[in-house]
Amino acid sequence: MTAIDAAPFSPDEIASESIKPEEYEEIVKRLTRHPNKAELGMFGVMWSEHCCYKNSRPLLKQFPTRSDRVLVGPGENSGVIDLGDGLHLAFKIESHNHPSAVEPFQGAATGVGGILRDIFTMGARPIAILNSLRFGQLDNPRTRRIFSGVVEGISHYGNSVGVPTVGGEVYFDSAYAGNPLVNAMALGLMETPDIVKAGASGIGNPVLYVGSTTGRDGMGGASFASAELSENSADDRPAVQVGDPFLEKSLIEACLEAFKTGAVVAAQDMGAAGLTCSTSEMAEKGGVGIELNLDLIPHRETGMSAYEYLLSESQERMLFVAEKGREQELIDIFQKWELHAVVAGEVIPDPMVRILHEGKVAAEIPAAALAENTPLYEREILAEPPDYAQTAWQWTSASLPSCNEEGMNGQTWSEILLQLLASPSIASKAWVYRQYDHQVQNNTVLLPGGADAAVIRVRPQTESVETYKGVAATTDCNGRYVYLHPYEGAKLAVAEAARNLSCVGAEPIAITDNLNFGSPEKPIGYWQLAKACEGLAEACIQLGTPVTGGNVSLYNETFDNQGNPQPIYPTPVIGMVGFVEDVRKVCGQGWQQVGDLVYLLGSATVTLGGSEYLAMIHETVAGKPPHLDFALEKQVQSVCRKGIKQGWINSAHDCAEGGLAVALAESCLAGNLGVSVTLSPDENQRWDECLFGEGASRILVSVSSEKQEAWETFLQEQLGEAWQRLGVVQEEELKINSSVGVSLEAMRDRFESAIALQLAE
Q1: Is 705 helix (H, G, I), strand (E, B) or coil?
Q2: Where are the beta strands (DSSP E) in 517-623?
Q3: Would you give the distance in Å from CA 129 to the centre of its chain?
Q4: How many CA atoms lie within 13 A of 750 on its CB side?
Q5: Distance (Å, whole) CA 135 – CA 164
Q6: Strand partners, 76
Q7: pTM
Q8: Band of the pLDDT at 230, cuts 50, 70, 90?
Q9: Packing angle of the helix pair 744-760, 141-161 (nearest 10 deg)
């Protein structure tokens, strides 16, 4: 083998790999020589924010990561929690934002494929997919193209691979016009007796490459994901991968069969940074080295260089460490599923990643230098909130036009409610979820659109074990809240996710987060990230929902015509899972029968600050988001869960965007029944605040009239004065005092057709 001897790179060549000048100096210092082209590329992807979290890792250390249920926390392909009776759930969320901005269909499709591989790499069979999506306004043709392409990509991959897409969220705001957010979450049930980890071990053990072939697609995807989007980003289409869901279906089956043999020592998905990431992370986690011969890698293009092999992000590929002598056993399994499987290397004692190509050493780097001992930037946090936030906090509702019980500015409250129901962020997402197969595998208990969280039945491998256990899942974040007040907004995101689980009767257990932010190198961007992380940490501690892993997606910015950066709203999406003891005792959001009594659990305190009403009707983004009282939040959620378990509660729905009036309308539409409600705002409260103000810790429930006495006694004992009886379920109209009177037909017309109408423009 020939030793590496490389000449220095020019500043432009260094910058082309997204490496800073001072980082290049550190690379030379660690190698005691200049890197060659392949090595420079390896450092470029592994030292990107997407792979090494160099700006965010110091902030993530404050997250709680342990509980009695957490079996695997951050650092592996996905988190794993214990559901009892030998049932273990793997789950994780990740982003594919920049690829989806450039190529919406493949960007979203491969985002789904990648998160599924994170699940089955652990030895779990994927059982559900959720997503969290953000786009610009639908009156923009580019937004409509990206939105349609993303939904089609998610549908194509999820439906084809046979995993149900059971829930999620979709928001539209001009803040995401240039940089959409496409976050995909997946859940899986462990099928192997032991959790499969990524750390390589056993000197001399063979390293197997399995799955699809390697091509030039996805080149430098990790670096692409760690840079701002610009008008030249379309030129980076090679950084967008191309997926094959049918091949991935075979890969799922082959991997799970292989894991059950016990011959697999370690496994790693080849996602971001491809072979570079999988070899270096497996070696570093095991404290060993890996030697890999690129000449043995199955490929679909000729003349590929070591650089191209190492940075390719071709999809549906895995790297295994196998027990020596049992490699053929594994190869036979993959060949049965018509997949490639070859011995391409071995575990070595030196903690190095050594890459061979065409009879030479193409790269040789200490594994820790790529995967663990990477640059870290602990930046200074602004001592005072930035001007935009301080200005926003000075806003008060006194600046709004006067209103009364009948309406405002010549509009009735009924007309304004219908406008809100037609807002794409509030309107029915049926146009989206009807394209997804949400019932494949036959374990979906609550269908999309009918409940605040998805519920999936979990089936043990042993049919003799009878269980009605289930798992609930949701994705949540109000980016506008986080923009206005990152600390409070992040706390509210965790609380809302837990509240949505409680509304179906599930006990919140743990979260996976996807931190979508702008550039951390700018003072405001880092302030938003740091304060949001602080809020997430506090909320997770208070609510007992540790973080098991997730993804950080920074540099979500585009540039306007003047070259000014336009960051997205800071959007720390919370993917939360909850335990359902009995799937026969879960709850949807729709009214169930005429005559049921309607109650509001929680605080009467609301605000128009940061509300959907303020943004849509008054075109104003200002104020502070609602205040969160953790003690009340926990008590309200506990009461809701106990009420569902006791059989008292027939429906439950979180009061979120649009406030109480919109929550009432959504429960009417979900149950195809009306409601008559009487509100009594105090003398200092505006009518629009009463109807459309937003607050934390508020759940709308309905209860059978014959259970009124027992229910209200329970409420008084548990919540004191923090509840109200609002009214009664009726036939075909939503009626609130003399302020609102809207038929189901009128609400449905606006609510269900809003997105389709805008797409048709």
Answers
A1: helix
A2: 547-553, 557-559, 565-567, 571-580, 597-602
A3: 10
A4: 20
A5: 23
A6: 74
A7: 0.96
A8: low
A9: 100
- Considering only 235-239, 378-382, 534-538, 659-663, which range has the smallest mean pLDDT? 235-239
Residue 515 pLDDT > 70: yes
Strand partners, 94: 184
Q: Are 286 and 360 a contacting pair, CB within 8 Å?
A: no
Report the distance separating Cα 325 and Cα 594, nearest Å: 69
pLDDT tier at 147 (50, 70, 90 boundaries)? very high
Q: Which three-class secondary structure state does DSSP give residue 211? A: strand
Q: How far is residue 622 from each of residues 383, 388, 396, 610, measured CA to CA in Å?
A: 21, 9, 9, 6
Q: Which residue has the tokens 């450092």?
A: 43
Report the alpha-carbon distance of residue 103 to residue 236 in Å, rounded.
10
Structure tokens at 519: 């550039």
| pLDDT band at 221; cut points 50, 70, 90 | low
| pLDDT exceeds 60 at position 604 | yes
Which domains, ranges and CATH numbers included, belong to the chain?
197-373 (3.90.650.10), 380-427+587-761 (3.90.650.10)
Q: Which residues are catalytic?
A: 50, 96
The CA-based dihedral angle spanning residues 118, 119, 121, 127, taken in that order and rounded to the nearest 10 degrees? -140
Nearest CA to 665 out of 759, 741, 761, 583 is that of 741
The C-alpha atoms of residue 550 and residue 48 are separated, in whole angstroms, by 16
- Rounded CA-CA distance 469/489 in Å is 32
pLDDT confidence bin for 465, thresholds 50/70/90: low
Distance CA 542, CA 537 (A): 9
Dihedral through CA 356, CA 357, CA 358, CA 360, nearest 10? -50
Q: How far apart are CA 603 and CA 626, in angstroms?
A: 11
